[in-house]
Design goal:
By secondary structure, this protein is α+β, with helices and mostly antiparallel strands. It has a single domain, classed as Alpha-Beta Complex (Nucleoside Triphosphate Pyrophosphohydrolase). 32% of the residues lie in helices and 21% in strands. It has 11 helices and 11 strands. The chain is globular and about 60 Å long.
Length: 387
């Protein structure tokens, strides 16, 4: 077999492209960048056997298999429930969540195997190189959880986001093909189960997420957003929660009241402001629906909120776009939300069961699927109560 440059290709490369094909290719490449990479207007079909994420496996079947002995909140959803508040709320009862801050800064315990422990540094370096880590911050680790049916108590401690990046966010990173990973090591100790919440080899920081509902022609509809590929996880352009992030420890902890509102809820409002440009006064009601542990991040706890606003869809989109422009102007901040797609519509889901069965095909990410599931359960239980 012999190879030779054809005259047509030679003229395209060496000459001034008389057919204008190179200019056309350049235009098509630019459109691909804008519509697929830099926005969520067009999402490529998922391959049958997708290339695994080098840091975290998002594959539903794999996650379910790994933690097969954990009870899922519903088959197909990658969380196990710690507590659900829906029945208490609908029954007219108060939901009380208290916090117990522990002193000191949390430090990760070491893995006994030096090769596994070394993955923290090599995996973190790769994580940073991939643009998933921009800056360190003080976040909130959940040490202990208690709920007696009336009061939930969260025992918490200050941690660094870097500790999360060196544990819960690089669980499937391999330094060599078929080599050890943090997750393989943990699963070998507790086959089929998540690590204990008290396992200090993982940061287990608290995540907060809100699904915001707005009114349209008498119907409450969820405001989902399209996450960009700059987000650390769940970054495939799928539909995502209205606002979410790692709960951050108060900057002035000595003058901050040790309450759930001041440590957790205020941080959720900060996420809403940073991502959607919404203030607490823009919300008519905010309710915690559940706390659950995620399979993908080996039991990282997540608090799911539902929020309601009297703003219209267009008003929310306008606020979001204004906030996006502010973020794009700041090189130190990642742009975590794409512009609201003009041609893709937020999927309509009619029941909690439908969410669990169809979220993957609807291109809704696993965390938001759990949010939608709890929101629909809330509405379904509400409708069963006589008015």
């Amino acid at each position: 077999m012999t190879f030779r440059i054809k005259k047509t290709l030679w003229s395209l490369i060496r000459d001034k492209d008389p057919t204008n094909l190179l200019a056309l290719f350049e235009t098509l490449n630019m459109l691909h960048e804008k519509l697929v990479i830099e926005s969520s207007e067009i999402l490529p079909n998922r391959p049958v056997d997708p290339k695994p994420n080098p840091f975290l496996s998002h594959t539903k079947s794999t996650a379910e298999h790994r933690y097969s002995k954990e009870k899922q909140i519903y088959p197909g959803l990658l969380y196990t429930e710690m507590v659900c508040y829906i029945d208490r709320l609908v029954a007219g009862k108060e939901v009380t969540i208290e916090i117990k801050p522990e002193p000191g800064l949390f430090r990760l315990d070491r893995f006994s195997d030096p090769e596994v422990e070394a993955l923290r540094d090599t995996g973190f370096k790769a994580f940073k190189k991939a643009g998933k880590f921009r800056y360190d911050s003080d976040v909130i680790r959940l040490l202990k959880f208690d709920d007696d049916g009336k009061v939930t108590t969260l025992t918490i401690q200050k941690a660094k986001y870097e500790a999360q990046a060196k544990s819960n966010l690089i669980l499937d990173y391999e330094a060599r093909p078929s080599g050890p990973t943090l997750r393989k090591t943990l699963l070998a100790e507790r086959r089929g189960y998540l690590p204990e919440l008290s396992d200090k080899r993982l940061a287990q920081t608290i995540g907060v997420s809100m699904l915001l509902f707005y009114r349209d022609q008498g119907e409450w509809l969820p405001f989902l957003v399209a996450r960009s590929r700059e987000t650390a996880v769940l970054n495939e352009g799928d539909w995502s929660d209205s606002a979410s992030g790692a709960a951050e420890w108060p900057a002035d902890e000595h003058n901050t009241a040790k309450t759930f509102d001041d440590y957790i809820l205020d941080d959720l409002y900060m996420e809403l402001d940073e991502e959607l440009g919404l203030k607490p006064g823009d919300l008519s009601n905010v309710l915690p629906l559940a706390i659950a542990r995620e399979f993908i991040r080996a039991g990282k706890p997540q608090i799911f909120f539902i929020g309601f606003t009297n703003l219209s869809y267009n008003e929310i989109v306008m606020r979001m776009e204004e906030r996006r422009k502010d973020t794009l102007d700041n090189p130190n901040l990642p742009n975590e939300i794409n512009k609201m797609p003009a041609f893709r519509r937020i999927p309509r889901v009619n029941s909690a069961k439908e969410v669990a069965k169809s979220f993957h095909d609807m291109r809704i990410d696993p965390q938001s699927a759990a949010s939608l599931y709890y929101a629909h359960r809330f509405f379904e239980v509400m409708h069963k109560i006589p008015s």
